[in-house]
Amino acid sequence: MATKTFTGEIAFLNVKKGQGARGPWKAYSAKIVKEDGEEYEEWVNFGFKKPECEKGDSVVITCVKEKGFWAAKDVEITAKASKDSDEEDSESGEDGTAEESEGESAPQASSSSKSPTKDQRIQYQHSQEMALQLTDLLLQHKAIPLSATAGAAGVAARFKEITETVNKLTVILNNDVATGRLVRDIEDVYEAPAKGEDFDGEDEGEGDSDE
Fold this sequence. Notes:
Distance between the termini: 45 Å
Radius of gyration: 20 Å
Number of strands: 5
Order of helices and strands: EEEEEHHH
Largest sheet: 5 strands, mixed, barrel
């Protein structure tokens, strides 16, 4: 079983909310930045229990890889977040708590700002990572229709189709986090589009939408 230790500061603590058969739930994950300022590519997942650590805390987290994700098994807080970091969060519209970075209070682009915030960039990066994993899973199960054309033209066509799938899934997953969309609002089963139909369920020839 693969293990990994994440040492550094919690740069972003994310909460994803949902509604299941047993009621509402929350899943917690965090992005860690090393002492030299370099950010770990992977997210640390805490599951459905809110972790004791907070944004800005210095931590040493031992994780085990489960189903492609790094699940926290042991969390040691070596230093609590300073007041200065809390004040900095407030200036950017965040108070450092997981609750304020999700649902109705999730970080969203301001109408007066053209550049995404650091939290928004991290959120988008995480969505892209999840989109890549989901696309890989769909390809393994042949759930994405790809061009069967041989030769260089076929390779180019399949590259375009897979890239478009990743991009669209990234936007969908990022939107789920930003808006706090509930699980009950998402279809349980992904139905692969028929030939001649794009990823959104629209006919490529006519452009009609199910909506």
